[in-house]
Structures are given as C-alpha cells and as structure tokens.
Design goal:
Layout lengths: L1 H8 L5 H5 L6 E4 L2 E4 L4 H22 L1 H23 L2 H4 L4 H6 L14 H14 L10 H18 L2 H20 L9 H84 L5 H29 L15 H10 L4 E6 L7 H17 L8 E8 L2 E9 L4 H16 L3 E5 L5 E9 L6
Parallel strand pairs: 3-4
Antiparallel strand pairs: 1-2, 4-5, 5-7, 6-7
Helix pairs in contact: 4-8, 7-8, 7-9, 8-9, 8-10, 9-10, 10-11, 10-14, 11-13, 13-14
Length: 440
C-alpha cells in the first residue's frame, strides 16, 4: 500500500488505486502528504530517492544527458589544467596563446559518441595545436584522459578499419605530446611516457572492441527474436485464415446444396420442354439466372468470413490492388515480378477476394533469393482465372500454413490448386478459379 501511495504521488498510478486501500495515518513528506505506518517516513523517503536516482540514470543515458556529461568532462579537464598552465614553476614559459589553445586537447571528447573517428583526428590535431607557440607546455593532464575516453568510444563504435586508423592517430598524438611535454624532461622523458601510454591505449582499445562484439551479438539476438516473433504472428494469422476458410467451405457446401439442386432442375426442365414453349423457357431461364446470382452473392458473403480484415470494416481487396501487395513483399526484401496475360477484367467479388488472398498466401509459401526472384503470373482466360507463383521453397511452419490456407481459398470457390517441385529448392504453385460474371 505504501508503495502504491508513493507511486500515485509521483504520477505512476491512479488515485483510486490508493483510495481503495483505506489507510488512515498521514505524514508530511517534501511536497505532499502520504499515508503510512510507523516507519512510513523513512520508507517513503528511501523510495523517493530511488526513483530520483532511476530518473537521473535514465536521463544520463539519453542523448541530451550524454552531451551534458561529455561537456562536464571537458570543463573538468580544462579547469584542472588551467592553474598548472598558469604556474611558471610547472609550465615554464607562460603564454596567453598557449593557455587559449589548451582546450583543443579536451574538446574532441564532445565528438566521441557521434563521430569517434573524427574525435580521434581532432585529438591528434589538438595534441599539436595545444603545444603552440613554445611546443614545450604542460598539457598532459588534459590530453591523456581525453585520449582514453576517445579510444574506448572509437573501438566500441567504429568499424574495425576506422578503429585501427583512429588508434594509430591517437598514438601519434601521444608520441608528439611526449616529445613536447615540459614535465617529462625530469620524469623518464618520451620513452617512459610511451611505455606507459601505448599499452594503456591498446588495452582500452581492446576492451572497447570486446564491448562492441558483445553489443553486436546482443543486437543480432534481439533482431532474431523479433523475426521469430513476426513469424509466430504470421503463422497464427495464417492458422486463423485456414480455420475461417474451412468454416466458410463447410457453410458454403451446406447452403449451396439446395440452390444447386434448383439450378440443375431448372436446366433439366428447360431442356425437356418443347422449344416452342417460350414462356416456360423464359421462366426456367429466370430461375437459373436467379440461382446463379444467389450463389455469387453467397460467395461474396462467405468471402467476408474468409477475410482477416472484416473486423476493421475496410474495403475487401481485389486484384486491382495486386501491385500494392507485391510492393509490400518487395519492401520486406523479396524480389517479385508480375506478369499479366490477357485483358484484366472485373470478376465477382468472392472470386476477386479469393484470388487476392491466394496470391498473398502464395508469397509466404514461395520465397525469393538475390539471384532468383519470385514470379507471379495472372492469366485471364474465358470463364477461368489462372495464376502461377514460382520461386524458391522456404522451410518452416509459416510456409506450410500458407500453402494450406491458399488451397482452402481456391477449393472453396470450386477451383483447383496444384503444387509442383520442378527442381530441388524450387516451388511452383498453380491455381484455377472459375471467373463467373457478377450478373449471372
């Protein structure tokens, strides 16, 4: 209960959640009052401090926090060196220009996150520029810590080639710094400085490379997890589509039986009558036409059941949107070509939806490679719509579910569906759908 009250005061839970507990005692704390027990003040204060610490860490991890942190590091490094640079006993000859150029050895730290290679170049240049005009000035306390930070960022953020070149530039800057540093004259000279700094830079660089490799592995695992999640969702959607298509098929078979019987009786009755009985022929033709129209309308209604977008009340897709479907596949990394044979024409709504969904499922069941694009061919023939999808055969449950969904779509509408494997690793899907005109 205590935690709920504190979280409510910090805006992390709703007021009614706290009121439901019915605590009575109230104690003051900072900018508000909290209900608590005997030790509530200490607990609330500790929890509040933990929340503030969490927010501070989150802010420092953000882009603005990182910039502020690097800027603070630069200010500390420069501020630490200014008194020593202005002391003649330490720096020897003190010059205004030398003091003004001292920040050039620290400011490259500001670039270490966004452009680590540029930061390494700027540090190497800063080691030279900060020595002007005497090239015998004290700047060791600024340049060396900056070099350590930049080397780590360079190794953990840059590609291997640029990281190696950047390390060489930093080491060159350290060598120049050792040759022109006034305090090294009595402390082992440049040799001792290089023996200290070169292994230190190399060790930090190696640590940065290890961090980068682990981050890359973590990123690959995260991407793999997202890919598996997408595949699971896709498999689940296909399974739902299969169940809908199967249910629609059962309803279609049960509901069409009597209508088909009516159409067949009308056809048989019209054929058995004498040809001169025109009114009877017209009557039977009308019965037949109404029966066919009823079948087409029922296919359209059952198509809504098969559609996975009916809950959104969006327009049902048609073959006129096939280019958009292929564009989505190309955006996902698949190379797909479209071929249309014959003059495209508007078909019955159920046929349009079944054809669109079948092609959509086929693009999951048939993949494409860099040098082997998938091909979708639509053939508009008299009374029939044929389509063929050709490509590589991917593995996995998603492809198997897509094949099942495509077969259900086609067979439910009285069509035929065929799977062929002309070569190892290749798959060809062929389907035929009766292209009945909308009016009968």
């Amino acid at each position: 209960m205590l935690i709920l009250i504190v979280r409510q005061r910090l805006g992390l839970c709703h007021e009614t959640t706290v009121a439901a507990a019915g605590w009575r005692r109230v104690i003051p704390w900072r900018d508000g009052e909290f209900v608590s027990g005997e030790d509530g003040g200490v607990a609330v204060r500790a929890y509040g401090q933990a929340m503030l610490y969490e927010r501070l860490v989150r802010w420092l991890g953000g882009r603005r926090g990182r910039v502020v942190l690097d800027l603070a590091i630069c200010v500390v490094l420069i501020g630490y060196m200014i008194p020593a640079v202005l002391d003649p006993d330490v720096n020897g000859r003190v010059t205004v220009l030398g003091t003004a150029l001292l920040p050039t050895a620290a400011l490259p730290v500001l670039l270490r996150r966004r452009a680590p290679f540029a930061a390494a170049c700027a540090l190497a240049a800063g080691c030279v520029i900060s020595g002007i005009p005497t090239f015998n000035q004290f700047r060791l306390g600024t340049a060396v810590p900056a070099a350590m930070l930049i080397v780590f960022s360079l190794a953990s953020r840059a590609e291997r080639g640029r990281a190696v070149v950047g390390l060489a530039l930093v080491l060159a800057g350290m060598a120049f710094l050792g040759a022109t540093e006034v305090v090294l004259d009595d402390s082992g000279g440049i040799t001792g400085f290089l023996i200290f700094t070169f292994p230190l830079c190399g060790g930090i660089w190696a640590a940065g490379r290890i961090v980068r490799s682990r981050e890359q592995v973590a990123a690959q695992l995260a991407e793999r997890s997202r890919e598996l999640e997408r595949q699971r969702e896709q498999t689940a959607e296909l399974a739902i589509a299969v169940e809908r298509a199967r249910l629609a098929s059962n309803l279609d078979a049960a509901a069409r039986a009597r209508i088909r019987t009516m159409v067949e009786l009308a056809e048989g009755g019209g054929a058995s009558l004498p040809t001169e009985v025109e009114p009877a022929n017209e009557l039977f033709a009308r019965i037949e036409r109404l029966g066919r129209e009823s079948l087409n309308e029922m296919r359209g209604l059952l198509g809504v059941l098969r559609s996975d977008e009916h809950a959104e009340r969006s327009p049902r897709p048609t073959l006129a949107q096939i280019d958009a479907l292929l564009a989505e596949a190309r955006a996902g990394g698949s190379f797909v070509n479209l071929e249309i044979v014959g003059e495209s024409r508007a078909l019955a709504a159920g046929t349009e939806l079944a054809a669109y969904r079948t092609v959509q499922h086929a693009l999951v069941a048939v993949g494409a490679g860099d040098d082997r694009p998938a091909t979708v061919q639509l053939r508009y023939l008299p009374g029939v719509l044929e389509f063929e999808v050709r490509g590589i055969a991917p593995d996995g449950s998603a492809a198997a579910a897509a094949l099942m969904a495509a077969r259900e779509r086609v067979t439910t509408h009285g069509g035929s569906f065929d799977i062929d494997t002309p070569a190892p690793g290749e798959r060809v899907l062929r389907a035929r759908l009766p292209a009945v005109a909308t009016g009968g």
